[in-house]
Amino acid sequence: MSAPTNTQRVRLIGGLWRSRHLSFPAREGLRPTPDRVRETVFNWLAPSLPEARCLDLFAGSGALGFEALSRGAATAVLVEKDRAAQAALRQTAHLLDARTATVVAEDALDFLAATPPAAFDIVFLDPPFETELLAAALTLVQERGILTPAGMIYVETAAGTAWELPPDLRWHRQGCAGKVRFGLATLHKESQ
User: Fold this and answer.
1) 37, 78, 113, 150: which has the highest count of C-beta atoms within 10 A?
2) Does domain 7-191 have CATH number 3.40.50.150?
3) Domain chopping of the chain, boundaries
């Protein structure tokens, strides 16, 4: 049985659920991180993933959060405000028997504003391109101290987009692939 035309799919590329497909609704601004980018980023994150507490803030398809769990993360909170995407995320968690995945139906910035300090080891920030959400989310993550001291933030945006990290964050690694600019940022040692 083929997926309806208003549904898209993305494949998990490593770990326990390697080659499993995630279905998600076709929505403007909802585009999963490309396979090539995810492979690179998860190779970078490999030493940090075991037992990590992860936040997939603009979850969309759930590709980042479920990939993290597939590769050994302890937990993943997937925050999504679109109702159809929430339902797809819950269905995926059920199909994968991902018991440590939590789907939160909330606006991403509201979720960050209520998150306690040092709540996550890895935060994935991949908001819809063409919005101001990335800068606002980065600022809240920093101001609220949401990362653990050795934590990392994954950032994805359109290639060619100009923006800066908040003062207490520094690039650990960066890359560009096709239309996507991506990187991992860490807390600057002097700010810890």
Assistant:
1) 78
2) yes
3) 7-191
